[in-house]
Write the structure tokens for this entry.
Amino acid sequence: GQQVMQIPQYQHVQEGEDFTTYCNSSTTLSNIQWYKQRPGGHPVFLIQLVKSGEVKKQKRLTFQFGEAKKNSSLHITATQTTDVGTYFCAGGSQGNLIFGKGTKLSVKP
Amino acid sequence: KAGVTQTPRYLIKTRGQQVTLSCSPISGHRSVSWYQQTPGQGLQFLFEYFSETQRNKGNFPGRFSGRQFSNSRSEMNVSTLELGDSALYLCASSPGQGTPDGYGYTFGSGTRLTVV
């Protein structure tokens, strides 16, 4: 069945360093979404990418959707302690939204 | 406007019992999806309901079932509980089927189920 793989599983960074998480699908996606889950919280929608090669920015966050619509990345520039949490990608295909297992980001002040 | 409401927040059940969880989506949202979240498996899709009809179903045994009412509120039921069913159950609502027009899912705070 369709799978969405996300790496790395964990990332520990020093405050101010950059962070990137990668998402790969076994099939072509119609869209990719990104969510953030703070410790003890629930996933919160960040953004959706639909077009091949699309790049979107939200302040220090940059989201990319691959040309083949099978991979995506989230890059955070100059991490802050408020960026702590687990970042999930979710691939949309045939009406389903399949989540990756997430990348847990910890930031050392 | 009010967010997605899930009740109860916490639940402890014994193996073999059954449980019903409730989800009230955002007013006007007609689609409700359910996910099981565990540390090892992440977010796993259970099912999606749209206008009282189950549109999609994940790879869970028949012990997991759900339904949606005419007011879009949804319930999921797990029968004959097993220890492995202990998890955070999250409900997500969206305006239409799937996630149309750039709308992501809005998740509730979840129901944490512990089976002992």
